[in-house]
Write a structure and sequence with these properties.
Layout lengths: L1 H11 L2 E5 L6 E7 L4 E6 L5 E9 L2 E9 L2 E9 L2 E9 L2 E9 L2 E9 L2 E9 L2 E9 L2 E9 L2 E9 L2 E9 L2 E9 L2 E7 L2
Parallel strand pairs: 2-4, 3-5, 4-6, 5-7, 6-8, 7-9, 8-10, 9-11, 10-12, 11-13, 12-14, 13-15, 14-16
Antiparallel strand pairs: 1-2
Length: 188
């Protein structure tokens, strides 16, 4: 079976890393152009991470612990940084960075959390921290020099930050159960 995955990886241009200690089945698929960097550390069982990088000096890092977490990072451009930390079960995270010098950090601890960050522009910063269960968070940044921060502790919380233009700053902090918050920011 390992030979099949390695052959498939060679045919489609991915570096496939399988980590399977003690009945675990972890998969990391990495397709990176030269001069991009990545670090993947998978512990536990049934972890999945996909990293697609094109451009130069992008860095995509992932640490996955416990069981059945999923992460996807796509970086197109130069100098983007995407960091993913998952410790729990059935968490899912997506990061898409198109542009230059964008930073995204997603931290998930708990069960069934979902987070997404999309950065289209330059010099944007986004941070999502989820502690608890079944929280949802999303950040969309279109423009330059925007900053967004979402922090969720509890269960069934939902948060969204949408920023267009330049120089916006927004933050949402949720503690408890069943809260919902949305920020829309636009500037010239």
């Amino acid at each position: 079976m390992k030979k099949f995955f390695l052959l498939l990886g060679a045919l489609i241009g991915f570096a496939v890393v399988l980590q399977a200690p003690a009945q675990a089945f972890n998969v990391a698929l990495i397709n990176a152009c030269p001069t991009n960097y990545h670090y993947v550390n998978q512990q536990g069982d049934k972890q999945f991470f996909l990293l697609l990088q094109c451009g130069t000096h992008n860095e995509g890092d992932a640490i996955q612990k416990d069981k059945a977490n999923t992460g996807i990072t796509v970086q197109l451009g130069k100098g983007n940084l995407g960091i993913l930390y998952q410790d729990g079960k059935h968490n899912a995270a997506l990061t898409v960075q198109v542009g230059k010098d964008n930073n995204s950090v997603i931290t998930q601890e708990g069960k069934g959390n979902e987070a997404g960050v999309m950065q289209l522009g330059n010099d944007n910063d986004a941070s999502v921290t989820q502690t608890g269960h079944l929280n949802e968070a999303g950040v969309l940044q279109v423009g330059d020099n925007n900053a967004a921060q979402i922090s969720q502790a509890g269960e069934f919380n939902s948060a969204t930050i949408v920023q267009s233009g330049s120089g916006n700053w927004g933050a949402i902090s949720q503690v408890g159960v069943g809260q919902s918050a949305t920020i829309f920011q636009s500037s010239n």
